Amino acid sequence: MDFLVDEAGNLLPSIWVAINTIWPALVMLVVGWVVIGWVRQLVVKILTRKMDDASAFFLGQITRALLLIILFISVLSELGINTTSLLAALGAASLAIGLALKDSLKNLASGFLLVALKPFKKGDYIEVAGTGGSVDRLTLSHTYLKTPDNKTIMIPNSSLIHNNLTNYSTESKRRLDLFVGVSYDDDVREVKNLLLKLANEDARCLQDPAPLVGILNFGDSSVDFTLRMWVNSSDFWALKWHLMEQIKITFDEQKITIPYPQRVIHQAE
Predict the structure, then answer these.
(1) Looking at CB atoms within 10 Å, which of 37, 181, 232, 266 has the fewest?
(2) Quick one: average pLDDT of 253-260?
């Protein structure tokens, strides 16, 4: 029993030394973490006055990452760890680290390019490699898109740089092309007049340049027309759906046939 008391007495000074060493580092870590969060929010708030939200969010994350690195080095120094030798070891291992994080570094560099080139901003509807959605946020490694049916898509930043990117929101006007086929027995002049009439009756169809109707192709079972018009980007889908419905209703009323592919099979006797 006396042995245990003696050992406890010998350990107490060491325990107090450890506590006195750890608690300042722990307080520094907690306070630093909170302050860095505030700094990131402040940086994003300031940057949003000069750039779009997605770019500001990305630079805010860069600021947070750099401050966290400084914080962790400071905490290690407070704990008595020789950070100089640690940094030297990390420098010597930088090649291996770079190879291991090759894809992550590529995405990070691509993020900087996206901020610099500004191919899109938050809320823009973009399409890349067959995937489309509205830009939600740009992070250190990925860009997040929201689809019209409220799905979230994560795309690596490098994919946005190395693939063809289409932004449907940069221009205020878009061209709307509608395609419809009619029977060879129908009067093509009547079809043309009806399509132009439907376009001109809708105020969302812009008149400069004026709507255009032309025969696009002579198909196997139909004469294929295209109705081409310019609309405000915000009206694109609503006008397309409305005109498609009106074309079908009007053609039915005027006895104009929209044929469907047919195949005739002759059986030998």
Answers:
(1) 266
(2) 89
Close Cβ partners of 26 (under 8 Å, ≥ 6 residues apart)? none
- Per CATH, the number for 173-253 is 3.30.70.100
Q: Which residue is it, tokens 């376009």? A: 199
Q: What pLDDT score does 3 carry?
A: 46
Q: Are 155 and 162 in contact (CB under 8 A)?
A: no
229 vs 63, more confident: 229
CATH architecture of 119-167: Roll (2.30)
What CATH architecture does domain 2-92 belong to?
A: Orthogonal Bundle (1.10)
Q: 34 or 10: which carries more pLDDT confidence? A: 34
Residues in the chain: 269
Given strand 142-146, what is the order of strands in its sheet? 152-156, 142-146, 131-138, 125-128, 165-167
3 state SS of 176:
strand
Rounded to the nearest 5 degrees, what angle is found at the Cα of 56, between the Cα atoms of 167 and 42?
Answer: 160
Residue 96 has pLDDT above 50, yes or no: yes
Q: What is the spatial distance between Cα 75 and Cα 160, in angstroms, rounded to a whole number? A: 37
